[in-house]
UniProtKB/TrEMBL annotation:
Residues 49-227 form the Succinylglutamate desuccinylase/Aspartoacylase catalytic domain. Keywords: Hydrolase, Metal-binding, Zinc. Its cofactor is Zn(2+). The keyword Amino-acid biosynthesis does not apply. This is Succinylglutamate desuccinylase. Gene3D superfamilies: Zn peptidases (3.40.630.10). Pfam families: AstE_AspA_cat. It comes from Flavobacterium ichthyis.
Length: 323
């Protein structure tokens, strides 16, 4: 017989088994003294099971992640067969309103964890997220997008040599898996220290919604939930067409001069060494130089800015794949 789940308390409110609740995390106000509410959407099954958090908008301009979590809710994927699903579509509401990555205090919230109850605005949000939500969570998928016009191929990022996270990434089946160390002050690093198993999803670019990236995020989420027996029985799950390509090492290709940027390379594609990836020209028709692949590999990120400066990161290319 399944165990009967216990009541849980979030933000001072008790949520019983079988309940659906939208709570509001209120930490600060706008300059107009208007309350700023961060909706926390909780769906609980009558049957005991894991607690999973789907979060996005840690960076306010990474809209594609917000769209994925929004659709998880709209499509009722967040109504679990067992266990509990918590959705926070927009963590950094300030940045979302202002179309910026940072908080109004100029800080990147993903560099101030574990935060402080009496610290900067971003630090306070980090503190309350870790103390009010994360202690209840077993697993988390945090959805992100590329910044500064750089478009990420859909990918899951995990730390190297972690068997449990690798298994979960295999379940999600994103097109790419990227091994990357936890960054000090990041949400992922703090969750790891608290024993929460987190997958970090990257896909698309800031201030943009891409339908293909969104669909990859949704389908991966359904596979993730199905793995734990949590997927809404009314939903179907499909295996990805290809297995995840895991990248152990990668490098940035940087612009060798300033000018107008003309990319001819599709994100996610495999290129041979010496392949022309892009051209950089002056605006007067006198100069046009080629940018070539320094090695064979997969293009997992591409700069989509129309103008670049010398030294700008323009392509992220794999240099070593997992055997």
């Amino acid at each position: 017989m399944p165990k009967t789940p216990k009541e849980i308390t979030i933000l001072g409110e008790t949520i019983l088994p079988g309940e659906s609740r939208t709570l509001n995390m209120e930490i600060a106000k706008l300059h107009t003294m208007t309350k700023l509410k961060i909706p926390v959407i909780v769906e609980r099954s009558l049957v005991d099971g894991p607690v999973i958090l789907f979060s996005a908008g840690l960076h306010g301009d990474e809209i594609n992640g917000v769209e994925i979590v929004r659709q998880i809710i709209t499509q009722k994927i967040n109504k679990p067969k067992i266990g509990t699903i918590i959705c926070i579509p927009v963590i950094n509401v300030f940045g979302f309103l202002n179309k910026t990555r940072e908080f109004p205090d100029g800080r990147d919230m993903n560099r101030v964890f574990p935060g402080s109850k009496n610290g900067s605005l971003a630090s306070r949000f980090a503190y309350y997220l870790l103390h009010e939500i994360i202690p209840l969570v077993d697993y988390c998928i945090d959805f992100h997008a590329g910044g500064a016009d750089r478009f990420n191929a859909p990918q899951i990022r995990i730390v190297p040599h972690n068997h449990d996270l690798k298994k979960l990434a295999d379940v999600f089946q994103a097109p790419f898996g990227l091994y990357s160390k936890n960054i000090s002050g990041s949400f992922r690093n703090s969750c790891d220290k608290l024993g929460v198993k987190m997958l970090l999803f990257e896909g698309g670019k800031s201030m943009d919604i891409n339908a293909d990236v969104t669909q990859e995020g949704i389908e991966g989420t359904k596979r993730f939930l199905a793995h734990f027996g949590m997927l809404n029985p009314k939903k179907t799950v499909q295996k990805a067409e290809i297995n995840t390509i895991y990248i152990e090492k990668s490098n940035w290709v940087r612009a060798n001069r300033s000018g107008m940027f003309h990319s001819v390379t599709k994100v996610g594609s495999f290129v041979e060494k010496g392949t022309v990836l892009a051209k950089i020209s002056d605006p007067y028709g006198a100069v046009e130089v080629k940018v070539k692949a320094p090695n064979s590999g997969y293009i997992i990120n591409a700069n989509e800015a129309p103008i670049v400066y010398q030294g700008d990161a323009i392509f992220h290319i794999s240099t070593a794949l997992e055997d």
